[in-house]
Design brief:
The chain is of the alpha+beta class. 42% of the residues lie in helices and 20% in strands. The strands form 3 sheets. Strands 1-2-3-4-5 form a 5-stranded antiparallel sheet, with helices on one face. Strands 6-7-8-10-9 form a 5-stranded antiparallel sheet, with helices on one face. A 3-stranded antiparallel sheet has the order 11-12-13. It catalyses: L-threonyl-[protein] + ATP = O-phospho-L-threonyl-[protein] + ADP + H(+); L-tyrosyl-[protein] + ATP = O-phospho-L-tyrosyl-[protein] + ADP + H(+); L-seryl-[protein] + ATP = O-phospho-L-seryl-[protein] + ADP + H(+).
């Protein structure tokens, strides 16, 4: 009982911290949004003094269609972007409601922008630019036409290992590229893994997750289910992303999250700390896959394997003949008809 009281006090402290954040001041006027080195205007994005985009992106250059995704503080629409050379590009348009929010919410936006601009990777969703419209910041992003891994898991349930392998490999490539730049994803979960018809897998929403806002609501509980144990109680590093990766792979293989029935943050933390990884791995699968999940789900982060080491697993290179980006995307593209067939059932 004492343990649960201690954990609950952490959540109350977080809520109190949120109340303090709401009183924080920040620089915002009618023409631009400024926060932590990022400046966004009606037609430009500037990061730490460097102008990244200007003039090409603005409300008039976009034609918006239906909603394709929603988050706690944003919604994403399908859009058509007419560029200056009259090229029309299908994009994802993310409308982020941050101007009237807390300092932490604005920091989440800034973290995502910095991650997307500092990491030029084929395995991270591409940012074309951002602009300010009234009280919203709009980000224009690469569109992935097959949607999220979460939606695919819901439709296919347990995946074949031949499908899991190229997905897991490309997730690790994205994590490797982020970690090499000193950036943590912080919110790796199936909903933040996107796929397209070319067999490509890319990460989105890097740097977004926080327990500082709405700590006890269902949205954050859903995110917390993928968080490493140390993220809920103490300081953490990039190996917390590896824990999340292990849970994502587990869910791909089994069609379910191991802690899906837990409905409170307190119970989640207690369950995670008391869980035996060997009990979680009671299902049948290749020993190489089981080893990858096991190496990712150590309670002690120092015992988890980093992304660049997991990529060298024989389960990828020998069992599935996946050795680089091209072989991974080629393997997944071969499997895509199974996914698309399931989507139309």
């Amino acid at each position: 009982m004492t343990r649960r009281i201690d954990i609950l006090s952490l959540n109350i402290d977080a809520i109190n911290a949120e109340a303090e954040e709401l009183n924080c001041s920040y620089h915002s006027d009618e023409e631009c949004f400024r926060h932590e080195g990022v400046t966004i205007g009606a037609d430009f994005l500037r990061l730490e003094g460097e102008t990244l985009t200007r003039g090409e992106l603005a409300p008039g250059s976009l034609r918006l269609d239906h909603i394709i995704g929603k988050g706690a503080f944003s919604e994403v629409r399908l859009g058509l972007w007419t560029r200056k050379n009259d090229e029309v590009l299908t994009v994802a348009v993310k409308d982020f409601r941050v101007i009237s929010g807390s300092s932490e919410r604005r920091s989440m936006l800034v973290r995502e922008l910095k991650a997307l601009t500092k990491v030029q990777s084929d395995h991270i969703i591409r940012l074309y630019g951002a602009y300010l419209e009234e009280t919203h910041v709009t980000m224009v992003l690469e569109y992935m036409n097959l949607g999220s891994l979460d939606a695919i898991i819901q439709q296919t349930k347990a995946m074949k290992e031949a499908m899991v392998a190229p997905i897991a490999y490309q997730i690790l490539l994205g994590l490797r590229d982020l970690h090499e730049k000193g950036i943590m994803h912080r919110d790796l979960k199936p909903a933040n893994v996107l796929l397209n018809s070319d067999g490509e897998v890319k990460l989105c929403d890097a740097g977004m997750a926080s327990l500082g806002e709405h700590t006890l609501n269902s949205t954050v509980l859903g995110t917390a289910k993928y968080m490493a144990p140390e993220r809920l109680t103490k300081s953490y590093g990039r190996l917390s992303d590896i824990w999340s990766f292990g849970l994502v792979v587990y869910e791909c293989v089994t069609g379910r999250h191991p802690f899906s029935k837990i409905d409170s943050l307190v119970d989640l933390l207690v369950t995670v700390e008391e869980s035996d990884v060997n009990e979680l791995l009671s299902f049948e699968c290749h020993s190489g896959l089981k080893e990858i999940i096991e190496c990712s789900l150590h309670a002690d982060p120092e015992q988890r394997m980093p992304a660049n080491i997991l990529l060298k697993s024989p389960w990828f290179s020998i069992t599935h003949k996946i050795e680089n980006t091209k072989t991974a995307s080629d393997h997944l593209r071969i499997m895509l008809p199974l996914i698309e067939k399931q989507q139309h059932l």
